[in-house]
Automatic annotation (TrEMBL):
Entry GO MF terms: ATP binding; ATP hydrolysis activity
Native source species: Methylobacterium phyllostachyos
Family of this protein: Belongs to the ABC transporter superfamily.
Record-annotated ABC transporter domain positions: 18-249, 271-517
Protein name: Nucleoside ABC transporter ATP-binding protein
Keyword Nucleotide-binding: yes
Pfam families: ABC_tran
Signal peptide annotation: none
Tagged with keyword Secreted: no
Length: 539
């Protein structure tokens, strides 16, 4: 295995490679883990399943030395060990691929990887090892690129490569495919199978249950911080696994029937980009070229694409974080906004959910109610923001928490204390609760469980049904085919024509995502009488 040396050897040792017994973790009066037992054996891929807030991430942080348990012990081949730090965990052979990237934005790829490698390892040698592993597994990285310039998918590759270079006995993977394309995920699965075949143990956390059924031979299921069951995922369906996780059957997304072409319910055009071209905003960013789109009230337009093909730049152009060369290149309800910033666009009824929830969509050190205030400041004056207004913000945050089943410690916790999936639910809910006329959302269900994904998708459909124009940027084709009335593809900064969902296939969209040239690339993809899209509907 290139880039990974000293492979773990298969063993007949009957003891678990690692065990966790009676694990309790309390944060004040909140119990995140409640007497959890877990055994992980060499040569297996073991799934840890549970809905958002079930306690999975807390348990993983304990196994990786980021947290110490309030009660209970961790063992390595039967011997009790104390994991005081991630460095201690790595010395024992535990590696972790994080859901939330633990990367330093201003450092390069190689510098981020070097932070967890041997200090004596020379930079040139490390770069060679990064390149060799990337070449072997298709996880290619440019060692000298700064992290801030990378897409979410490229950042995920750093986490995976950094873990593999440490030659782990146990690899903990927390939602490893949430920002990967199908092709990238397939390459990762190949890597995981090879690691398993060498006698390593893998603990796999994912809300993509078909992946769990494909890869894992055992699953431990958490709910409310406790173990509520175990199973062989191969003998379950995705639906039955989801039911075990949430304690009930997950409701299917229900959408109203497609509206006929020309139906007045489609409403007026609310969002338009008109031949928008933007130079790459950074050395490693993607330029946008002649992008044209239009969305009417009542419609959901899905934009598919592989990470790094201009999604971040398109979102920034839509939100006002990057100005357009011409004011008329971006219009909200007919008003030219290309030179206006995000607050001005919010005042016109637009709302935005960026891909990165920590730091971009939410300030992790502020409470949920304070995060609500940050996004309402554009539409409500804050000069007299006193106790009454603070109470109103807390009440609004509570409504979001209740409507989207956001789970956290306390009535108004800091955003950074929420699990990734719960923070995603809060951010999406915060924007939808504002009843925007236009909603632009990037990766709406990244890292959320099946029930939460259904809740978010239903909320997007319902928002469109109330007359909003919804634009969804997503790498998840299943998601787009479930909720979007039409789908376009962004590749290398070029946007294809919109294709009615009922008139295309996943294979056709996948070809465009991979750069297959066709007559639709670069055409006007306006939605309406000239190029109609249907109201979002279930397949």
């Amino acid at each position: 295995m290139a880039g990974v040396t000293g492979s773990a050897k298969p063993t007949d040792d009957p003891r678990p490679l690692f065990g966790a017994y009676g694990i309790v973790k309390r944060f004040g009066t909140f119990t995140a883990n409640d007497h959890i037992d877990l055994e992980i054996r060499a040569g297996e891929i073991h799934a840890l399943l549970g809905e958002n807030g079930a306690g999975k991430s807390t348990l993983m942080k304990i196994l990786y030395g980021l947290l110490e348990p309030t009660e209970g012990v961790v063992t390595h081949r039967g011997a009790v060990v104390r994991l005081r730090s991630p460095e201690a965990a790595r010395r024992l052979g535990i590696g972790m691929v994080f859901q939330h990237f633990s990367l330093c934005e201003n450092l390069t790829v190689a510098e981020n990887i070097a932070l967890v490698m041997e200090r004596s390892l020379r930079r040139g040698v490390l770069a060679e090892r990064i390149a060799a592993l990337g070449e072997t597994y298709g996880l290619k990285l440019e060692p000298d690129r700064p992290v801030w310039s990378l897409s979410a998918g490229e950042r995920q590759r750093i986490e995976i490569v950094r873990c593999l270079l440490q030659n782990p006995q146990l690899v903990i993977l927390d939602e490893p495919t949430s920002v990967l394309t199908p092709g990238e995920a397939e390459l990762l699965f190949t890597v995981l199978e090879r690691l398993r075949g060498e006698g390593r143990a893998l603990l796999y956390i994912s809300h993509r249950l078909d992946e769990v059924r494909r890869l894992c031979v055992r699953a431990t299921i958490l709910r409310g911080g406790r173990v509520v069951g175990a199973c062989d995922p191969r003998s379950e369906t995705a639906a039955s696994l989801a039911a075990l996780m949430v304690g009930a059957q997950v409701r299917a997304v229900a959408a109203r029937p497609a509206a006929p072409r020309g139906d007045e319910r489609l409403g007026q055009e609310r969002l338009r980009l008109d031949r928008l071209s933007l130079p790459a905003p950074g050395l490693h960013a993607t330029a946008l070229s002649d992008v044209t789109l239009g969305i009417r009230g009542g419609e959901i337009l899905g934009i598919a694409g592989i990470a790094g093909n201009g999604q971040a730049e398109l979102f920034a152009a839509l939100s006002g974080e990057i100005s357009a060369p011409e004011a008329g290149a971006v219009r909200i309800d007919g008003t030219a906004v290309g030179h206006l910033g995000i607050n001005a666009r919010r005042r016109l009824g637009a709302a935005f959910v960026p891909e990165e929830r920590n730091g971009h969509a939410a300030a992790p050190g502020l409470s949920l109610s304070e995060n609500v205030v940050l996004t309402r400041r554009a539409t409500a004056p804050l000069a007299r923001f006193g106790l009454v207004r603070r109470a109103a913000a807390r009440a609004l945050a509570t409504r979001i928490v209740d409507a989207f089943d956001v789970r956290g410690a306390g009535p108004d916790p800091a955003a950074g204390t929420l699990s990734g999936g719960n923070l995603q639910k809060f951010v999406v809910g915060r924007e939808i609760q504002a009843e925007p006329g236009i909603l632009v959302v990037d990766q709406p269900t990244w890292g959320v469980d099946a029930a939460a994904a259904a809740r978010i998708r239903q909320a997007l459909i319902d928002l469109a049904a109330r007359g909003s124009a919804v634009l969804v940027i997503s790498q998840d084709l299943d998601e787009l085919f479930e909720i979007a009335g039409s789908i376009a593809v962004l590749h290398a900064g070029h946007l294809s024509a919109a294709m009615p969902r009922a008139e295309t296939t996943r294979e056709a969209v996948g070809l465009l995502m991979g750069g297959s040239s066709g007559p639709s690339i670069g055409r006007d993809m306006s939605v309406g009488p000239s190029a109609p899209a249907e109201i979002a509907h279930a397949p």
